[in-house]
Design brief:
Blueprint: H1 4-13, H2 15-18, E1 22-27, E2 33-38, H3 53-60, H4 63-74, E3 80-90, E4 98-103, H5 106-119, E5 121-131, E6 137-148, H6 151-156
Antiparallel strand pairs: 1-2, 2-4, 3-6, 4-5, 5-6
């Protein structure tokens, strides 16, 4: 289990995110929200001078899975989390830094609890926008998160 501050810094320093100039600027209380920023730089520019699409895609990859993982860790429940699939729609070229806002509601968490209790796994899609400095969306990313109880926990019964 990580504190919000530890999570913010560990994720920001994770090499894949660090070298892509993806920075976590805020982790909300209990990991229920997260703000991510993609800086504009020589490293993140494509041939047209706008932000490389792969960088935008990378900025959406781990956050919902990490948020669920930490929320359940705070409840003393071990879960394994992955990004199962993702789809991105580029709406316009990203000519400025981008911001992505991730958030989980009480209902998202309650739904996960119910399904983990019943089936030992949970799959849920979440959408996030990458917005430029003017607040215009440049891309919409649909991520599908997969959670499951570790195999040993499933055999021994629920940890709830």
């Amino acid at each position: 289990m990580l504190s919000e501050r530890q999570g913010k810094w560990l994720l920001s320093l994770y090499p894949t995110l660090l070298f892509s100039r993806i920075r976590i600027t805020r982790v909300g209380p209990g990991f229920r929200s997260c703000t991510v920023r993609i800086a504009r730089s020589l490293i993140t520019r494509n041939l047209n001078g706008t932000t490389f699409g792969g960088t935008i895609f990378s900025a959406a990859d781990p956050f919902y899975a990490v948020m669920y993982w930490q929320i359940f860790a705070r409840r003393g429940i071990r879960v394994q989390t992955w990004l199962k699939s993702a789809r991105i729609e580029y709406l316009k070229p990203a000519a400025t830094a981008l911001t992505l806002e991730f958030a989980l509601t009480d209902e998202d968490i309650a739904r996960a609890v119910r399904q983990l209790e019943r089936e030992g796994r949970f799959i849920r899609s979440h959408s996030v926008e990458a917005v430029d400095r003017r607040g215009d969306p440049c891309a919409v990313i649909e991520t599908e998160v997969y959670l499951r109880l570790p195999r040993a926990d499933q055999r021994e019964g629920s940890t709830f």
